[in-house]
Amino acid sequence: MPIAIALVLVAVGSVAFHLLNPWWLTPIASNWHYIDATIAITFWITGVVFTAVVLFMAYCVFRFRHREGTQAAYQPENKRLEWWLAIVTGVGVAAMLTPGLFVWSQFVTPPKGASEFEVVGQQWMWSFRLPGKSGRLGTTDTKYITPENPLGVNPNDPNGRDNVVIVGDDLHLPVGKPVRVWLRSVDVVHDFYVPEFRAKMDLMPGMVTRFWFTPTRTGTFEILCAGFCGIGHPQMRGNVVVETESDYQAWLQKQQTFAQLSASAK
Amino acid sequence: MAEVVADTVGSIGPAEVAEVELYHATSWLTKYVFCQDAKVIAIQYSVTAMAIGLVALVLSWLMRLQLAFPGTFSLIQSENYYQFITMHGMIMVIYLLTALFLGGFGNYLIPLMLGARDMAFPYVNMLSYWVYLLAVLVLVASFFAPGGPTGAGWTLYPPQAILSGTPGHEWGIILMLASLILFIIGFTMGGLNYVVTVLQCRTRGMTLMRMPLTVWGIFTATVMALLAFPALFVGCVMMLLDRLLGTSFFMPSIVQLGQQLSYSGGSPILFQHLFWFFGHPEVYIVALPAFGIVSDLISTHARKNIFGYRMMVWAIVGIGALSFVVWAHHMYISGMDPYFGFFFATTTLIIAVPTAIKVYNWVLTLWRGNIHLTVPMLFALGFIVTFVNGGLTGLFLGNVVVDVPLSATLFVVAHFHMVMGVAPIFVVFGGIYHWYPKVTGRMLDETLGKIHFWVTFLGAYAIFFPMHYLGLLGVPRRYYELGATAFIPPSAASLNVFITVAALIVGAAQLVFLFNLIWSLSKGRAPGGNPWGATTLEWQTPQTPPGHGNWGKELPVVYRWAYDYSVPGTERDFVPQNQPASAPTA
Ligand code: HEM
Ligand SMILES: [Cu+2]
Ligand SMILES: [Cu+2]
To answer: What pTM value is reported for the model?
Structure first.
C-alpha cells in the first residue's frame, strides 16, 4: 500500500515541482526561441507519458496486490494491444522529432550576408577576432603563435592585416544582425556557451567549428566554458556585450588590428 | 486474446553431446581462490565490483560536499574534484556495473538458468576474473601514484587528458589506460565464454525462445560488448602511444601556455568517435541485463507470465542492434559535420520505440497480476519509475536541436544518472535480494531490505529529479564551483545543499545494505531451495546453494517456457520449466 501512495506522490509531485520551481531556462537573447518551443513540446509529451505510466503502475499495485486467495490472470500476449501501443509511441516520437529536425535545418543554414567573428580558446581564456574593412578573416595556424601573435594569424596573408584582435577582453556585437561564429582552440577542447543564446559549440583543436545566431536584445551576457578543459574550466569566463549599431561602431573604432599590434610589438 | 505462445509439450530430442568431464578442485586454493566454477567466479566478480563501487560511492559524497559547500573543505581542491568525478564515473560504469552484470550475474545465472553444469571454458573464465582483478588493482594504484589519478573526466578526451592542465597527467592517465586495456582483455575472455555457453551448452528442451529474459539480456549485452569494447581498446592504445612515445594520433599541433608542443596532425575528434562507438553501446551493455533481470523479477513476484515475451526478446535484440548507429548523439556540438545531426537524431529517437515497448510490457505484466510486494518487487517498481524518467529525458537530448542548449549541463548529469546509474543499480539490488537465497541458502533480512529500498528510492529521486532544472537554467557539469554567475539565482545554491543532504542519506542506506549482506550470511532465515516459487531452472537445483556441477546425475530437461505462472487449472501458481506436461502438478 505505501508503494502505491509513493508512486502517486512521485507522479503528482514531479508535475507540481515542474510547475512551481523557480529554475527555468534563462530569458532568451537570440533568435533560437524555436529551440525553447521544441523543449516545451517535448516537456508536454514526455510529461504526459511519465505521469500516465507511473499512475498506471500505482493503480496496478493497489488493485492487483496480493491478498489471500487472489490469482493472477494468464495472458501471454495481446498482439493488437502491443502494436497499437507501438504505433502511438511512434507518433509521439515523430511529433517531437519533426519540429526538432525542422529547427535543426535552420540551425545548420546560416543566412546569406551574415557578418562573422572568430572565437579562439586557450587554457583558460577567450579571445576573439573580427574581420576589418576588407570583410574577411585571414588564415591562421597554431605554428604562427608567438607572444606578439597570440591568435596565430598568418602574417603573410593580406586578409589578416586589418583583422581586429581582442585578447582577454569583452566581445561586442550589434543587436539584430545575424552572425556566423568560427571557433578554434589552440590547445584542448573548450566550448563556447552563452546560456541566453541557447546555441553552443565546441572548440575542437585542429579544426574550425561553426554555428550562427542573431542576438535579439542588448545587454551583457556571460560566456562560460562547457567543454571540460582542465583545472581552470569553471574559471574560463568572458562577456559578450550586445549593443546598438552606433555603440558597436564606436567600440569597434577603438580596437586594435592585427597589423597595429604587430607594429607596436616591434 | 490469451493466445498461448509457449508450447507446453514440445518434442525433446535425445542428448546429442556426451557429458564432458568436469573440472574438480583438488585443494582449498583451487576450490575458493583459483577456482574454475562459474558460481565461485561470479561471487569473486561481485564482491570485487561492489568493493570498488564503494570507493565510487564515497567519491560521490566528496563531490556533493564540494558542490553544496564550495570552498569549505581544504582537502577538496579543484584538482581533487576532477580526479573524483573521473574515478567515480569510470568505476561506476565499467568496474561496477559492467563487471557486476556480466561477470557477476552472468556467471552465476547463465549456466544455472540454461541447465548447464558450468561455462563452456571454465579455465578461461577463471582467467577473466583474475585479469579483471588486476585491472581494478591498477586503477586503485593510480590513487597512490605521483600526481594522483587522472582528472580527465570519464570520457578521457584528448588532448586535455594527457596535457599538463589536467590532474593526473603524469601517471594517472597511463594507469587508467592500462587498466582499461586489462579490463577489456579480461572481459573478452569472459564474454566469449558467455556467448559460447548460451549457444552451445543449453540443456535439452531449452530452445532459444524458452530462455528466461535474464539470459537474453545478458547474452545480447555480451555480444554488444564484444563488438564495442575493441573501439575503446584501440582508442586507449593510441592515446597511450601519444602519451608515452609522442605519436600524434589524437594530437593536432598545440600551443599550451605559450609553448609549442611537438605534436602535429592528429585528430581529437577521432577519439570521441572511438569512445562513443564504445560508449553508447556501453549504456545498453548495462541496461540490457537490467531489462532482462527486471522482467524476471516482475514476472516472478507478480505471479504472472511476462507480457509479450516474444516482443520483449525482439526489443532486446533490436535495441542492441540500433544502439550501434546512434553514438554521435553524444557529439552533436563537437563540430562534426552538422548534417550528421539529422541521421543520429532520427536513429536515436527510433530506439525510443522498442524501449517504450519494454516499459509497456513490464507495466502490463503488473496488470491483473497477483503482486507480492517483496523487496525485489519494490526495487523493480523503483527501476521502472527511474528508467522511464531517464528514458524520457533522453528524448530531449537525442533530439539534436534540444541537445544544443542542454548538452554539458547538469540536465545531462541528471538524465544519465536516472537512466544508467540509478535504474540499473535498482535492478542490481532487486537481483541480489532475489538470488541471495540461492547463492547463500539464506534470506536477506526483509525489514532492513525495506528500509534500504525506501531510503534509496525516494532519496535517489530527490537527488536527480530537481537536478534537471539546474541544467535547464544553464548550470554546466564538471564545474568545481559556480563562482559568481549572474544568471544563476542564489536559490540554486540552496537546491545544491538539498541534493547533497539527500545524497548523504542515500549513501548511508547503502551501508545498511552492506550490513544486511554480511549479517544475513550467517543469521538469515534458511528458506529452502525455491522460496519465491519461481519457474526457472536455477531454483530447481537438487542442492541450495547449488553444488559443484549444478545438477545431480542427470541434467534437467526443459518442457516449457520460463513464465508459466498462475496457469489456469494447475494446483500451484507456478510450473517449473523442467516439469513435464503430463506430470501431476503437486
Ligand atoms: C547516489 C549516488 C550518486 C551520486 C550522489 C552521484 C553524484 C555525481 C556527481 C556529483 C557527479 C559530477 C557531476 C558534475 O559533473 O558536475 C557525478 C558524475 C558521474 N556519475 Fe555519479 N553519482 C551517483 C551514482 C552514480 C552511478 C550509480 C553511476 C553509474 C552509471 C554514476 C555515473 C556517473 C558518471 C558517468 C559521471 C560523469 C563523470 C564525468 O563527468 O566524467 N554515478 N556523479
Ligand atoms: Cu574551456
Ligand atoms: Cu572548459
So the answer is: 0.94
